[in-house]
Specification:
By secondary structure, the protein is an alpha/beta fold. It has 2 domains: 153 residues, Rossmann fold (3-Layer(aba) Sandwich), CATH 3.40.50.300; 107 residues. The protein contains 12 helices and 8 strands. Strands 3-2-6-7-1-8 form a 6-stranded parallel sheet, with helices on both faces.
Length: 308
């Protein structure tokens, strides 16, 4: 059975508590520790925290989600030769739309003779839309009857959206191109995927997923595979619901709660709430000068409690 989610109270800094818990989990030996973070910024802070550790130890191997996708893709899939940037994707979509227009009756014919220069604004929107489809693990259909809701040219594209998407995917395959979001989509759609040995909890690695506030559909599939294989999922969240079942978690942490329900995970509180009540005061400031004047006054006034 997968491990319970490890909850760290959001009333305390997350990364210092995470570092201490990692050292405890690994008994001070970080050689087999692997951390998966959403992006590069928390990695820099975590490295700085380990640099200040009094007891010498190896740094854990820290990966961003993008690096994890690349590693899993390299391990499971035939690698694309080229990662297409936005200009390449727009040019590719221009060809796809024109080819689809030639074989489709209807309003899409307006794009048959449209130059690439005039297509760029539409191509950019289509490219962004399809990147969003990739990370949400969606295959869009043709969307008809939108004439009264969007601009005429947009309605033409939406009416053949599924056909354009299919041609776009086929063009990527023919050229052996990809995008970072498409790699995530491909690995999420791979049913027989396995984890790279260096990232596989079954190979004796302590793998920790940390720092995520929410997941897209494709990210959910990939990270759930890690968790089901033995990775630990750490959330910096409101621990009230876990410690007091009758109490509902803060609304800002509802996504964490839904995530836990979706994966049918138990929870274990690592970092308890501080128990302090935060005192908030609201001061109406009409401009920057009045705000700074009030701030100066507050800083000169002794605090009323240790949470002010």
């Amino acid at each position: 059975m997968p491990a319970p989610f490890l909850l760290f109270s959001w009333e305390k800094p997350f990364l210092p508590a995470l570092k201490e818990h990692m050292i405890t989990l690994c008994n001070g030996d970080m050689a087999k520790a692997r951390i998966i973070l959403p992006h590069n910024r928390p990695r820099r802070y975590l490295v700085d925290l380990f640099r200040c550790t009094t007891t010498p130890c190896l740094l854990p191997q820290i990966y961003t989600l993008e690096e994890i996708v690349s590693a899993c893709s390299l391990h499971n899939l035939t690698q694309a030769e080229y990662t297409a940037g936005l200009p390449d994707r727009i040019a590719l979509l221009h060809a796809c739309v024109q080819n689809t227009a030639e074989h489709t009756e209807g309003s899409l014919s307006v794009f048959k003779n449209m130059t690439l220069e005039h297509f760029i604004p539409w191509g950019r929107r289509l490219a962004d839309l399809f990147e969003e489809c990739f990370i949400q693990n969606l295959t869009p259909p043709d969307i008809a009857y939108t004439d009264d809701e969007v601009a005429p040219l947009a309605a033409s594209l939406l009416g053949s959206l599924g056909k354009i998407y299919a041609a776009y995917q086929e063009s990527f395959e023919q050229r052996n191109w990809t995008t970072p979001s498409r790699e995530l989509f491909r690995i999420a759609r791979t049913t027989q995927r396995t984890l790279p040995p260096l990232l596989d909890p079954q190979q004796g690695n302590t793998v920790i997923i940390a720092g995520f506030s929410s997941l897209t559909a494709a990210e959910d599939i990939l990270l759930r595979h890690f968790w089901e294989e033995g990775a630990l999922c750490c959330l910096h969240t409101d621990t009230t619901a876990a410690t007091t079942p009758q109490t509902k978690a803060h609304w800002a942490c509802e996504e964490h709660h839904e995530w836990q329900k979706r994966w049918r995970a138990q929870s274990h509180v690592i970092s308890q709430p501080s128990g302090h009540k935060t005192h908030l005061s609201f001061y109406e400031g009409f401009d920057l000068h009045s705000q700074l004047a009030k701030l100066s006054e507050l800083l000169r006034t002794p605090p009323q409690n240790d949470r002010t």
